[in-house]
Write a structure and sequence with these properties.
Elements: H1 2-5, E1 33-38, E2 41-45, E3 51-56, E4 59-63, H2 71-81, E5 86-90, H3 96-99, E6 110-114, H4 115-123, H5 138-141, E7 150-152, E8 155-158, E9 165-169, E10 179-183, E11 188-190, H6 214-224, E12 230-232, H7 242-264, H8 269-274, H9 289-305
Parallel strand pairs: 4-5, 5-6, 6-7, 11-12
Antiparallel strand pairs: 1-2, 2-3, 3-4, 8-9, 9-10, 10-11
The protein binds zinc ion.
The site of zinc ion has 7 residues, from loops.
């Protein structure tokens, strides 16, 4: 069964290091690989973020909808998995590789996000560190289709029993609206990009992200969410565990202290970034030069404000 679902299993390598929009030529075939996690829960990989598809008794919930143009391929792939209708989208945060497919879903589909993410989706501000020019808001360009309809602040429960989905917000990190999505009956968590993989995070200050807060937000999640066997991250191909999440929290706390030490020692942002090395205990973590530099800048700016 699992093997049969790995249709066209060509997945771009290197997606670990991407936490944002992969620019592709429009002609490139849109290939989605399906990993079946549980009887009613699938991860759709390719085209941006890891999309989760949950087949509930009254319809399907989709978590994150990938880059522009990937909404229909998601819907096509879902048809191979179930004949139930999609009733709900949950977006973990505002970024284009997580929300853009929303506009290709039927207008009747509910869209649920953390309340700060709704405000961010209304602006779609350029992402910190990517040098993007301001573009047209994809929701405005589509007459408001796909925009968030329902919001929560700290916690929301949707459905009950086998259908139950719990949504949490544990504070700023990647943005100021990072939702954590939990299926308690399945013991699965989708962390979105606040834990995108074993990689230096993208700290999107333009959308409320925080390098000072991210470590404690991650720890709060690891302490609060119980009984999880499998963690879906924003982008990593491999599934993770709560132990990986705890390690990632510490990785970010260590980075904050590294930057704080440099700032207090009077070093420039460039010097702090250039001298950074991933500590040996975080084997396999990726920290691209441009990402590190952007994150040092974000944290230095935050520390200055304190
Ligand atoms: Zn993101």
């Amino acid at each position: 069964m699992k093997r049969a679902l790995l249709l066209g299993g060509l997945l771009a390598v290197g997606s670990l290091s991407m936490t944002l929009v992969a620019f592709q030529s429009p002609a490139a075939p849109k290939v989605i690989e399906v990993e079946k996690l549980k009887d009613h829960l699938f991860v759709l990989k390719g085209g941006g973020a890891n999309t989760a598809v949950f087949v509930g008794s009254n319809g399907i919930t989709v978590v994150d909808t990938k880059n522009p143009g990937w909404g229909q391929p998601i819907l096509d792939k879902i048809k191979e998995l179930s004949n139930k209708p999609v009733v709900r989208i949950i977006n973990t945060h505002t970024h284009g590789d997580h929300v853009s497919g929303n506009v290709e879903f039927p207008a009747t589909v509910d869209v649920v996000v953390q309340e700060n993410t709704k405000a961010n989706m209304q602006r779609m501000a350029p992402v910190t560190g990517l040098g993007q020019p301001p573009g047209q808001n994809i929701f405005e360009a589509n007459g408001g289709r796909g925009m968030a309809k329902q919001t929560f602040k700290d916690k929301m429960t949707l459905g009950s029993g086998a259908d139950q989905i719990d949504l949490y917000y544990f504070g700023r990190g990647h943005t100021n609206g990072d939702a954590w999505v939990v299926w308690p009956a399945l013991r699965v968590l989708h962390a979105g990009d606040i834990f995108s993989g074993k990689v230096a995070p993208l700290l999107d200050a333009n959308n409320g992200g925080s390098g000072v807060e991210i470590g404690s937000s991650l720890t709060r999640a690891a302490d609060s969410i119980k009984n999880i066997d499998t963690v879906i991250t924003g982008h990593a191909v491999a599934m993770m565990t709560m132990a990986d999440l705890r390690e990632y929290a510490q990785f970010n706390k260590d980075f904050l202290e590294y930057v704080r030490g440099g700032v207090q020692g009077g070093k420039s942002v460039d010097a702090i970034a250039a001298e950074y090395k991933v500590p040996a205990k975080y084997a396999g973590y990726q920290a691209a030069e441009a990402r590190v530099k952007s994150n040092v800048q974000v944290i230095a700016d935050e520390l200055k404000k304190k």
